[in-house]
């Protein structure tokens, strides 16, 4: 096995911050910092009252909407909202539901009545269905689902009642921070480079080879186990390394940024993308292109 | 907070690697991780590092009335605690199954084996005896807590010194450490637990599993033994079927490991004793390497080098032949040399290059006075101007 060795060298740290006009207005706080002593404000998430002074309880950026002050934390577990697309892993099979792990404070719940069973939509869930739950989803399986509602204790209730959700087959899972995934209209993208991506709001990103035909009657539980071609695997590996590079440099993830990063990383070898110097180069190029694209 | 579950492909990878007799950190099947034992400034305080697993043990003593059923024996009390510091999966004040298991095994290993002489802990029969309390705290959980806890407990017990007492009839005087030297406990032997993890229905076993390996194990066999090859306790959990010769083989491996570990403990104890006698510094602070410029120091990572030569030769043969070497420098005159041949002069001048060294020599001899009158145009750009200036002078 050949090992690559590099001497520790002082490489110049390229400042990647783009000059945005509102950069200096960011009000960053750490837990315990006093935000304001003015009592006229209402306190929102991430703050608490400490002897008439509004103090931050998490580390993040202060946001003010009229009279409401809240602190948006930089690194946090996923806080679900209704309508979010999440990618999760089944941890338990319980009586009429599955427990799904989605990088949040509590495990999310997928009720048996919220999944599409083969054989029609409006079928009543019988006891046979209950006993056969493990045939559909086992412990360790990955699924894509949408948040249907939130329980009072904060646990999410998921559903896979559309054909685009369901059990995930062959692909690669990348874990990033939930705050890096941009909220968009759709989180399922078929990238032109030859792979598809699901950007879960909970920070779980799923990369998979684009299926040629969209199976209509599968119902979301059929996973193709056909071997994936080497070219597809290379595309997916490169995408995965690009995602890691973007996540390390805290770039918002959405289909355009991922695509630009992929194109910037094409001239490099796939495993070279993980080197810190190459990462900086690629992310710099991606940022520049994104700024041009907006402006 | 529950730990993130292991993904299917990680489980498959670990099991496949075990089938091929490979472990995540490159150890062999029967290898232990690096064991490091350090003692604190107080007698009876010990930290054991088994790879990344860290366990702290503190032994304290107190005079209490004895148990009614045993009026002439001292009391030894064991307590193991798992705090969220060890792993985010441990919740505070939660009696988990693992905690009960570890506590029971520790008690069985050290109490039932009668390694501590409890009769010597009696001060006044029926009234006052010493209660030795052993508190084990897990500081970091990276697998194999049982072994770490047992090594820490027995090291701390061997290191501990109880205060000296004098009995005058019914009066008992307890001397402080300044008045009289404290006395060590009388320990007959050192029982140490060795854990074996079984995988794939008992076909493969590993000694000293790390945390990842523990998550995919089928069953666990813990054998507590001392260096005289006496088995103090055996416990098998997980419900796997073990064959007779498997258990015998495990006990043989355990005896080898236990003798090594006992040697290590004795060496650490002797080192500590020697340092205290010589008056040097001891304690936890001294055992940590001081912060130096070499802060990027890492543990040695074992690298597989079996086929390095062939791969290196392969790479050398495959690469293209390098370009011609640069010619060695040619000495023109003392102090001037040129390497290779330069390209053609593209300045468009008619002067030859041979004139250059001569003009340069002349330049160094004369001192060029640049007149600052406005009449002369002092342009020291090309040879012609210089030459014309020299002609003028």
From TrEMBL, chain A:
It comes from Phoxinus phoxinus. PANTHER family: EXOSOME COMPLEX COMPONENT RRP4, PNAS-3 RELATED. This is Exosome complex component RRP4. Component of the RNA exosome core complex (Exo-9), composed of EXOSC1, EXOSC2, EXOSC3, EXOSC4, EXOSC5, EXOSC6, EXOSC7, EXOSC8 and EXOSC9; within the complex interacts with EXOSC4 and EXOSC7. The catalytically inactive RNA exosome core complex (Exo-9) associates with the catalytic subunit EXOSC10/RRP6. Exo-9 may associate with DIS3 to form the nucleolar exosome complex, or DIS3L to form the cytoplasmic exosome complex. Exo-9 is formed by a hexameric base ring consisting of the heterodimers EXOSC4-EXOSC9, EXOSC5-EXOSC8 and EXOSC6-EXOSC7, and a cap ring consisting of EXOSC1, EXOSC2 and EXOSC3. GO terms for biological process: CUT catabolic process; exonucleolytic trimming to generate mature 3'-end of 5.8S rRNA from tricistronic rRNA transcript (SSU-rRNA, 5.8S rRNA, LSU-rRNA); nuclear polyadenylation-dependent rRNA catabolic process; poly(A)-dependent snoRNA 3'-end processing; TRAMP-dependent tRNA surveillance pathway; U4 snRNA 3'-end processing. InterPro entries: Exosome_cplx_N_dom (IPR025721), Exosome_RNA_bind1/RRP40/RRP4 (IPR026699), KH_dom_type_1 (IPR004088), KH_dom_type_1_sf (IPR036612), NA-bd_OB-fold (IPR012340), S1_RRP4 (IPR048565). Keywords: Cytoplasm, Exosome, Nucleus, Phosphoprotein, RNA-binding, rRNA processing. SUPFAM superfamilies: Eukaryotic type KH-domain (KH-domain type I) (SSF54791), Nucleic acid-binding proteins (SSF50249), Ribosomal L27 protein-like (SSF110324). Residues 77-149 form the RRP4 S1 domain. It comes from the Eukaryota. Residues 171-210 form the K Homology domain. Residues 28-65 form the Exosome complex component N-terminal domain.
Automatic annotation (TrEMBL), chain B:
Keywords: Cytoplasm, Exosome, Nucleus, RNA-binding, rRNA processing. InterPro entries: ExoRNase_PH_dom1 (IPR001247), ExoRNase_PH_dom2 (IPR015847), ExoRNase_PH_dom2_sf (IPR036345), Exosome_comp_Rrp42_subfam (IPR050590), PNPase/RNase_PH_dom_sf (IPR027408), Ribosomal_Su5_D2-typ_SF (IPR020568), Rrp45 (IPR033100). Gene3D superfamilies: GHMP Kinase, N-terminal domain. CDD domains: RNase_PH_RRP45 (cd11368). Its main location: cytoplasm. Residues 349-358 have a biased composition (Acidic residues). Residues 32-163, 189-255 form the Exoribonuclease phosphorolytic domain. Residues 345-393 are annotated as: Disordered. GO terms for cellular component: cytoplasmic exosome (RNase complex); nuclear exosome (RNase complex); nucleolus. Transmembrane segments: none annotated. It is found in: Cytoplasm; Nucleus, Nucleolus. Pfam families: RNase_PH (PF01138), RNase_PH_C (PF03725). GO terms for molecular function: mRNA 3'-UTR AU-rich region binding. One of its GO terms (biological process) is U5 snRNA 3'-end processing. Belongs to the RNase PH family. PANTHER family: EXOSOME COMPLEX COMPONENT RRP45, EXOSOME COMPLEX EXONUCLEASE RIBOSOMAL RNA PROCESSING PROTEIN. This is Exosome complex component RRP45. The lineage of its organism: Eukaryota, Metazoa, Chordata, Craniata, Vertebrata.
């Amino acid at each position: 096995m050949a090992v690559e060795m590099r001497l520790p060298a002082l490489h110049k740290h390229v400042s990647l911050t783009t000059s945005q006009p509102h950069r200096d207005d960011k009000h960053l706080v750490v837990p315990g910092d006093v935000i304001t002593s003015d009592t006229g404000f209402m306190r929102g998430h991430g703050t608490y009252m400490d002897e008439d002074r509004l103090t931050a309880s998490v580390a993040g950026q202060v946001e003010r909407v009229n009279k409401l002050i809240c602190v948006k934390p930089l690194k946090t577990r996923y806080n679900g909202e209704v309508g979010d697309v999440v990618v999760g892993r089944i941890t338990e099979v319980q009586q009429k539901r599955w427990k799904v792990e989605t990088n949040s404070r509590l495990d999310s719940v997928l009720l048996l009545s919220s999944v599409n069973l083969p054989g029609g939509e409006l079928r009543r869930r019988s006891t046979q269905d209950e006993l056969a739950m493990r045939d559909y989803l086992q412990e360790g399986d990955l699924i894509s689902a949408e948040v249907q509602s939130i329980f009072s204790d904060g646990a999410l209730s998921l559903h896979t009642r559309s054909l685009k959700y369901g059990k995930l087959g062959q692909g690669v899972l990348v874990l990033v921070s939930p705050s890096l995934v941009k909220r968009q209209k759709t989180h399922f993208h078929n990238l032109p480079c030859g792979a598809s991506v699901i950007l879960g709001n909970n920070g779980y990103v799923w990369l998979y080879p684009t299926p040629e035909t969209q199976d209509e009657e599968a119902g979301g539980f059929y996973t193709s186990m056909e071997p994936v071609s080497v070219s597809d695997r290379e595309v997916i590996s490169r995408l995965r390394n690009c995602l890691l590079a973007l996540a390390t440099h805290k770039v918002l993830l959405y289909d355009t940024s991922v695509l630009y990063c992929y194109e910037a990383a094409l001239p490099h070898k796939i495993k070279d993308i993980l080197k810190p110097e190459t990462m900086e180069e690629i992310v710099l190029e991606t940022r520049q292109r994104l700024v041009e694209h907006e402006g | 907070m529950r730990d993130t579950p292991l993904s299917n492909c990680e489980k498959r990878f670990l099991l496949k690697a075990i089938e091929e007799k490979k472990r995540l950190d490159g150890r062999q099947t029967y290898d232990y991780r690096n064991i490091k034992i350090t003692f604190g400034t107080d007698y009876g305080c010990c930290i054991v590092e088994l790879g990344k697993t860290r366990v702290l043990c503190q032994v304290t003593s107190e005079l209490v009335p004895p148990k009614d059923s045993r009026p002439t024996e001292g009391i030894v009390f064991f307590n193991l605690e798992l705090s969220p510091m060890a792993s985010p999966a441990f919740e505070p004040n939660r009696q988990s199954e693992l905690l009960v298991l570890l506590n029971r095994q520790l008690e069985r290993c050290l109490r039932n084996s009668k390694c501590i002489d409890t009769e010597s802990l009696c001060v006044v029969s029926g009234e006052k005896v010493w209660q030795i309390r052993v508190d084990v705290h897990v500081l970091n959980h990276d697998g194999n807590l049982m072994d770490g806890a047992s090594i820490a407990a027995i090291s701390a017990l061997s290191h501990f010194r109880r205060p000296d007492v004098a009995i005058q009839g019914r009066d008992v005087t307890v001397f402080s450490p300044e008045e009289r030297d404290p006395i060590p406990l009388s320990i007959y032997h050192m029982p140490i637990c060795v854990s074996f993890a079984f995988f794939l229905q008992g076909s493969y076993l590993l000694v000293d599993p790390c945390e990842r390996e523990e998550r995919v194990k089928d069953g666990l066999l813990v054998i507590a033994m001392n260096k005289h090859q006496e088995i103090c306790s055996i416990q098998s959990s997980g419900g796997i079927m073990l064959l007779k010769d498997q258990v015998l083989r495990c006990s043989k491996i355990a005896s080898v490991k236990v003798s090594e570990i006992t040697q290590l403990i004795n060496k650490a104890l002797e080192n500590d004793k020697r340092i205290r006698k010589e008056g040097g510094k001891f304690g936890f602070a001294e055992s940590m390497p001081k912060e130096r410029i070499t802060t990027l120091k890492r543990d040695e990572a074992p690298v597989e080098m079996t086929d390095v030569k062939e791969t290196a030769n392969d790479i050398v043969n495959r690469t293209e032949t390098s370009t011609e070497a640069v010619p060695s420098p040619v000495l023109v005159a003392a102090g001037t040399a040129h390497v290779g041949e330069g390209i053609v002069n593209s300045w468009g001048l008619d002067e030859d290059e041979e004139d250059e060294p001569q003009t340069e020599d002349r330049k160094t001899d004369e001192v060029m006075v640049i007149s600052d009158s406005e009449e002369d145009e002092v342009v020291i750009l090309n040879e012609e101007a210089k030459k014309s200036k020299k002609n003028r002078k």
